[in-house]
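user: Please supply your own:

assistant:
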Amino acid sequence: MTEPTSLAPAAQTTPAPGVTAIEALPPEVREVLERFIVCEYTSLTRTGRPITWPITPFVGAHGTLDLTTGLGYPDKAERARRDPRVALLYSDPTGSGLHRPPVVLVQGRAAVRDADLQANTDRFIRDLPTKTTGFAGTPWWVVRRWNWYFARIYIEVTPERVVWWPEGDLSHPPLAWTRPDGADFPTSDPAPSGPPVPGRAPAAAAPPDPRPFLDRAEQLGEPVVSAVVDGLPVTLRCRSAVRTPGGFELRLPAGAGPVTGPVCLTFHRHGPAMEWQENVVLVGTASESDGDGEGRLLRVEVERALNDWSLAGGGIRRSRAFLGRARTLRKKMREEAARRGQPVPVVRRPKPL
């Protein structure tokens, strides 16, 4: 077997014809894809830089792994529509109920679904309670006013390659599954007309000084690092991270090949039901550092921090952080719906399928 330079798996399997990626994977890997509350989702900017955010994943009905982003902050989807190469890393088992699950990397092709915003909103109302309880107990008359949050764009990812580290042991080489050559990938819905709405992200311009964000990042545990290797985005859970004057020195998992150039560092943690979350996302440039016999080392010089939408602290503080974006996002939601020639979605009680 010829092993790729991006990841060197210990073994590799190819599925039988007609079997989806998820059906072809071992049960312990399927459990991760079905039960993890958060994965780290990587998409590429116009310049090819990876950007990674924690996001709640769902298993689709047709062998896809499905993600969402708010209609009022569609950048995650627009990047995937422009360049469908994406990566999903399932590396944080918090809230999954799984003991020592594998760390799973999915490299795939994304298709953006925003041709029916009302159907997406209805689906998200059904999907979300299967993973989180963040809105449990909230009166329905309150929830129905939050269409600025529940109005969604779906991103359906067809796996191209799945790599996993059994029992989450990053010190041993991973295993891998690959999609048959020549298989077709679904395409995105047509792009909306008109120029993009400016300032679509939940927060404004990136912070000018990243140092406070580096300080916060140190409190959130080991990060994931994303890069483009052999033409595909690769997202890896680091085995350790040590602060340096300009960034971090990272120890990569076994099987990782050389990683250099533009990278994204994502630090995050969340509650067992996503009742709170903290995120720090940093972009910079990576270079190889001298190894020490314990694995490949990577030195990252941080250039800037991306503004995040953390919901941390007590209940009142989290509510203020959540609702503080409502006015801005409601306006952007209306503008994005108009770009797609559709009415603004409404939040409706879920109906049996």
In short: The first helix runs from residue 21 to 24. The first strand starts at residue 11 and ends at 13. The two ends are 45 Å apart (CA to CA).
